[in-house]
Automatic annotation (TrEMBL):
<dbReference type="InterPro" id="IPR005786">
    <property type="entry name" value="B_amino_transII"/>
</dbReference>
<protein>
    <recommendedName>
        <fullName>branched-chain-amino-acid transaminase</fullName>
        <ecNumber>2.6.1.42</ecNumber>
    </recommendedName>
</protein>
<dbReference type="InterPro" id="IPR043131">
    <property type="entry name" value="BCAT-like_N"/>
</dbReference>
<dbReference type="InterPro" id="IPR033939">
    <property type="entry name" value="BCAT_family"/>
</dbReference>
<keyword id="KW-0663">Pyridoxal phosphate</keyword>
<dbReference type="GO" id="GO:0004084">
    <property type="term" value="F:branched-chain-amino-acid transaminase activity"/>
</dbReference>
<dbReference type="Pfam" id="PF01063">
    <property type="entry name" value="Aminotran_4"/>
</dbReference>
<keyword id="KW-0028">Amino-acid biosynthesis</keyword>
<keyword id="KW-0808">Transferase</keyword>
<keyword id="KW-0032">Aminotransferase</keyword>
<comment type="similarity">
    <text>Belongs to the class-IV pyridoxal-phosphate-dependent aminotransferase family.</text>
</comment>
<comment type="pathway">
    <text>Amino-acid biosynthesis; L-leucine biosynthesis; L-leucine from 3-methyl-2-oxobutanoate: step 4/4.</text>
</comment>
<comment type="function">
    <text>Acts on leucine, isoleucine and valine.</text>
</comment>
<dbReference type="InterPro" id="IPR036038">
    <property type="entry name" value="Aminotransferase-like"/>
</dbReference>
<comment type="pathway">
    <text>Amino-acid biosynthesis; L-isoleucine biosynthesis; L-isoleucine from 2-oxobutanoate: step 4/4.</text>
</comment>
<dbReference type="InterPro" id="IPR043132">
    <property type="entry name" value="BCAT-like_C"/>
</dbReference>
<dbReference type="InterPro" id="IPR001544">
    <property type="entry name" value="Aminotrans_IV"/>
</dbReference>
């Protein structure tokens, strides 16, 4: 791919900007005016374009509809005080998209197509990046199989697309979670480390069961013994026990390599916080709750950045976490991350890409 990239732009004649209420944004409901599209045909990515957001023509025999050969990403663009557009760790999302793609036999998207496609789309839809404090533009790149064929094999044709969606001031309420010991999200050798569409379909049923019982989300355990805490449905999960930050390692291939997770671990070390990447057992977690040594528990992910956990259900027993102390690690690291994302402090890590 040494050709210079040509991205054709076909602008929408009917912007939804005027009729969108930026003061009441719920996650994922409103899609901005344009979308980026690239087609994989004859062994290469081609026909790069930006067009008005709208329906696709899909043949009912489309392979993705039947077999779920599809992967996605999620990242965000923020506005700093000067009104400039900042994207947080987009290079990490680009690499992870290709790691997910590899696992699902999907051709990788070259870095320049991902980056230029995203950059152009953000330029065209820059007015969709909210100016309100705490708001941002969620970016959803995804790749899916485009063959019309009912046989099971990797598709020959694919689409790579990027959508964006303005999201609100997402100070999530502290969540109640349930430790899941019957169903599994991932197993060793499976697809848990990939942001693959099917992983999420498979987790809906157990998650809905927990929601009916009054819990917001699950804490998944390992698929083999259900003794080790892995992660939550769309977030990695971290615990502070006796002043040490503990989170599951990513070496088993059963845990999604969260970019927020990685960022929090890097910042924790810089903040002088002892860090352990190791599996916490369910009984160790229960002991820490019973003896009052569990100081904090939280999920990490692009949507909420840090989601505080207020209650954990283990084997049908609810444990309420202690009130967060002043100067709690999760509060401090959330503020530090937000300051970096909104360009309020220097970007010492090279995490910010200016559009
Ligand atoms: C996307 C995702 C996360 C969080 O990853 P970030 O890069 O921090 O947004 C964690 N777990 C699962 C299962 C995910 O899909």
């Amino acid at each position: 791919m040494n050709k210079t990239l040509t991205i054709n732009i076909n602008k929408s004649k009917h912007s939804k900007l005027e009729t969108t209420n930026f003061d009441e944004l719920s996650f994922g409901q409103i899609i901005s005016d344009h979308m980026f599209v690239a087609e994989y045909k004859d062994g290469e990515w081609q026909d790069l374009r930006i067009e008005p957001y709208g329906p696709l023509q899909i043949n009912p025999a489309n392979a993705t509809l039947h077999y779920g050969q599809s992967v996605f990403e999620g990242l965000k663009a923020y506005r700093n005080e000067a009104g400039e557009i900042l994207v947080f760790r987009g290079d990490a999302n680009q690499r992870r998209l290709n790691e997910s793609a590899q696992r699902m036999c999907i051709p990788e998207v070259p870095e320049e197509i991902f980056m230029e496609g995203m950059r152009k789309l953000l330029e065209v839809d820059k007015d969709w990046i909210p100016k309100q404090a705490g708001c941002s533009l969620y970016i959803r790149p995804f790749i899916f199989a485009a063959d019309d064929y009912l046989g099971i094999r990797p598709s020959n044709n694919y689409k790579f697309m990027i959508l964006t969606s303005p999201v609100g001031n997402y100070y999530s309420k502290p969540v109640a979670v349930k430790v899941e010991t019957q169903y599994a999200r991932a197993v060793e050798g499976g697809t848990g480390a990939a942001k693959a569409a099917g992983n999420y379909a498979g987790s809906l049923f157990p998650a809905r069961k927990a929601q009916k019982e009054g819990y917001d989300q699950l804490l998944w355990t390992d698929g083999k013994t259900h003794q080790y805490i892995e992660e939550s449905g769309t977030m990695n999960v971290m615990f502070v026990i006796d002043g040490t930050l503990i989170t599951a390692p990513i070496s088993t291939g059963t845990i999604l390599k969260g970019i927020t997770r990685d960022s929090v671990l890097i910042l924790a070390k810089e903040m002088g916080m002892p860090v352990e990447e190791r599996f916490l057992t369910v009984s160790e977690l229960e002991d820490a709750l019973l003896s009052g040594r569990l100081e904090e528990a939280f999920g990490t992910g692009t949507a909420a950045t840090v989601a505080f956990i207020r209650l954990i259900n283990i084997h049908n027993k609810d444990y309420v976490l202690p009130e967060k102390a002043a100067g709690a690690f999760s509060d401090r690291v959330l503020k530090r991350l937000d300051d970096i994302k909104y360009g309020k402090v220097a970007d010492d890590h090279g995490w910010i890409m200016k559009i």
